[in-house]
Design goal:
Strand content: over 45%
Structural class: mainly beta
Oligomer: single chain
Number of helices: 0
Shape: globular
Length: about 120
């Protein structure tokens, strides 16, 4: 069974930092583009950042310069380092594995809450 397990969410003050982690099990890590999405109350889920197996990254304009996505292919894990957090970053953050090979399925994590508040 292919599974994504996230960790690292929580409550942080504005200007603070958090690091999210997401571990893939049950499949081949290199078969996926890994991404982080978020969904705030009453809003649509949006892409925050994504990274290919080769390390090419893509960011939403709202997080450029503040967030960094990375992956450890040896540990089957993707990270999202979030710095200079703002209240508008408050959302449930979801890890996603988007396959680039035939026969693999798109997989979502269970989500982790990030709350930025003083």
């Amino acid at each position: 069974q292919v599974q994504l397990v996230e960790s690292g969410g929580g409550l942080v003050q504005p200007g603070g930092s958090l690091r999210l982690s997401c571990a893939l099990s049950g499949s081949i890590f290199s078969a996926y583009v890994m991404g982080w999405y978020r969904q705030a109350p009453g809003k649509r889920r949006e892409l925050v950042a994504a990274i290919t197996s080769g390390g090419t990254t893509n960011y939403a304009d709202s997080v450029k310069g503040r967030f960094t996505i990375s992956r450890d292919n040896a540990k089957n894990t993707v990270y999202l380092q979030m710095n200079s957090l703002k209240p508008e970053d408050t959302a449930v953050y979801y890890c996603n594995a988007n396959p680039v090979r035939l026969g693999y399925k798109n997989v979502w994590g269970q989500g982790t809450q990030v709350t930025v508040s003083s």
